[in-house]
Amino acid sequence: MMRRFRSMTMRLCLLILAAGIVLASCGSSTSNTGTSSTTSNTGGSMNETPTTASMPGSVVVKIATISLNGQSTAILTDTHGKTLYYFTSDTPTQSACTGGCASTWPPLLFQGSGSPQSASSLPGKLSVAQDVHGQQVAYNGHLLYTYAGDTAPGQAHGNGIGGRWFVATPSLSVLATPTPSGSQYKY
C-alpha cells in the first residue's frame, strides 16, 4: 500500500512539473503599466516570431529600467518587457532587416486601430510604418525590433551588435534623414 502511494505521489509530482514547464514556455501577458526594474542579463533560447502588441487600448510600448553598460538606463520594451532595439540601416519607412535578419530581430508589429500607445508618457512619438513586415511600430522614426537572443525581460544582449543595433531609449532622437542601407544582413 505504501509503495503504491509513493508511486502515485511521484506520478502526480511529475505531472505537475510537466504542466509547469508547459505553462512557463507559453510566456505570460500582464496588464501592469508603468516602469519596471530589472537587471537580468542571462542567455537562453531564441524566439523567431515577430512581436505583436497584445495589450488592450493600443498599448505596445512600456518603459523599464535596466543596467546597460554598467549604468541604470531607462529603455523601451514591448508589452512583455522584452527590450526594444532600432537598426541604423533602416529609414523611417523601410526596414533593412528582412529574411534571416528578421528571424533574429523580430519586428514589433501593431495590430489594432488608431495609433500605438505607451503605458507611460514618452517625450517622443510612436507611429506605424507599413513595410515588408506589415504595420511595424516606430519611435521617433526608428522602426522597433526585439532580439531573439533576449529571452527574458531586462536583457539587452543585442545592444551594439554589428555597430548597427542599439537599445531604444525614451530619449532616442528623431530620425530625420535616411541612413545608408548597405547590406541587409549586417547584424
Q: Can you offer a commentary on this structure?
A:
The chain is an alpha/beta fold and 187 residues long. 16% of the residues lie in helices and 25% in strands. It is built from two helices and eleven strands, in the order H-E-E-E-E-E-H-E-E-E-E-E-E. The strands form four sheets. Strands 1, 3, 4 and 7 form a four-stranded mixed β-sheet that branches. The chain has a three-stranded antiparallel β-sheet with strand order 8-9-10, with no helix packed on it. A hairpin with a 2-residue loop joins strand 8 and strand 9. It is globular, with a radius of gyration of 19 Å. The termini are far apart. Mean pLDDT is 76; it is low at 17-49 and 182-187.
Name its key features:
single chain, four-stranded mixed β-sheet, 2 helices, 16% helix, globular
How many helical elements? Answer: 2
User: Whole-Å distance between the termini?
Assistant: 62 Å
Report the principal-axis shape: globular
Query: Biggest sheet: strands, sense, closure?
Result: 4 strands, mixed
Q: How many beta-strand segments?
A: 11
Stretches where pLDDT is under 50 for at least 5 consecutive residues are 17-49, 182-187
